[in-house]
Design a protein that fits this description.
Elements: H1 2-23, E1 38-45, E2 53-60, E3 65-72, E4 81-89, E5 95-102, E6 105-112, E7 118-124, E8 127-134
Antiparallel strand pairs: 1-2, 2-3, 3-6, 4-5, 4-7, 7-8
Length: 137
């Protein structure tokens, strides 16, 4: 009985320790755009109606670049469905685009846009979301 109690305590400590380690996020964790990018926007696709996807925008102050991805949501996540993401300068001089029948998401795509407004759009199937003059700075 004494040995079983010690084993139970050790097992409990091991489970707690494992849970704490597994739940911890390293300070230098890398997101979908790479290290140094912080999420600056998350938008449902489409703006109204049943959600088909999510358009996410990230920014790195180190590189001065924005990054965008269009994720499937619900029935479109994990299923090969047309997914598209575009990011460009509001002035319309430059844009990056990724599209295809992806299971999870389109992107990541990158655009140098320090101190400039961007336009970003995402399509999941025929549902879309377009944002203009956003994330200026």
């Amino acid at each position: 009985m004494h040995t079983r109690s010690k084993l139970a305590i050790l097992a409990g400590v091991a489970m707690i320790s494992t849970g704490l380690v597994a739940g911890a996020t390293p300070a230098g964790a890398t997101g979908p755009c790479g290290s140094g990018y912080s999420q600056v926007g998350s938008y449902p696709i489409p703006k109204t109606g049943p959600q088909k996807g999510t358009l996410k925008v990230y920014y790195s102050s180190r590189s001065g670049k924005n990054c965008a991805l269009a994720y499937g949501y619900g029935a479109t996540y994990g299923k090969a469905t047309y997914k598209s993401v575009t990011i460009g300068l509001t002035a319309g001089t430059r844009a990056e685009h990724d599209y295809g029948n992806y299971k999870l998401y389109a992107g990541p795509i990158y655009l140098a846009a320090a101190h400039k407004c961007i336009e970003v759009s995402g399509f999941i199937g025929t549902a879309n979301r377009v944002l203009s003059k956003v994330h200026c700075g």
